[in-house]
Amino acid sequence: MVILGIDPGSRRCGYGVVARSGGRLSLVESGVIVPGDRPVAERLAVILEALGGVIARTGPAEAAVEQVFAGVSPRSALVLGQARGVALAAAARAGLPVHEYAPAQVKLAFTGSGRAGKDQMIRTARALLGLEARLSDEADAVALAVCHLARRALRPATPPRAVAARALSRLRSSRRDPGGRR
Predict the structure, then answer these.
(1) 109-122 pLDDT, tens per residue?
(2) What ranges do the domains of the chain cover?
(3) pLDDT tens-digit map of 16-43
(4) CATH class assigned to 2-176
(5) Which of 70, 66, 82 lies closest to 6 in space, CA to CA?
(6) What pLDDT shows up at residue 162?
(7) Burial 46-67 (b: 16+ CB within 10 A, else e)
(8) Which residues are catalytic?
(9) What is the pTM assigned to this prediction?
(10) Which of 118, 160, 155 is nearest to 139 (CA)?
(11) Using CA atoms, how far apart are residues 119 and 133, in angstroms rounded to an integer?
């Protein structure tokens, strides 16, 4: 199974694609999308396009995205929410089921400590998958994918037809009512 992990951000968006075969994990691809010093709308467009390319190249079955972490600045939280929305849209556009995890949940699953710092996340990514991440965004995205693979191993797999039927049902209902009203 191949999972795409996304650590959303408007200035740096980390992504990590991890495969599990039996009990073995391997890194397929990872990196950080840095859209540069542009207006927010342009940065979001760059992230959407780049994530679409990653999905097309690597063919993940599912995506794992970090839940919103509310910082001190309302403006920062809003821009982060927009970047998360773009990440969710990129995955949904490709028909991927999306799973969301809290930062502490990811850190606990990846390092054994829910309070792991950036350095510890990078060291664990290096030890576990040989990743030489320079930015924590990349290590965090890889950790999201690993966390999801670990959580998925603990529950029975959903038959592919059931996943496809749910996705098709959601798509049909969103087309009938684009405003989300029911």
Answers:
(1) 999 999 999 999 99
(2) 2-176
(3) 999 999 889 999 999 999 999 999 999 9
(4) alpha beta
(5) 66
(6) 58
(7) bbbebbeebbeebebebbbbbe
(8) 7, 66, 137
(9) 0.83
(10) 118
(11) 10
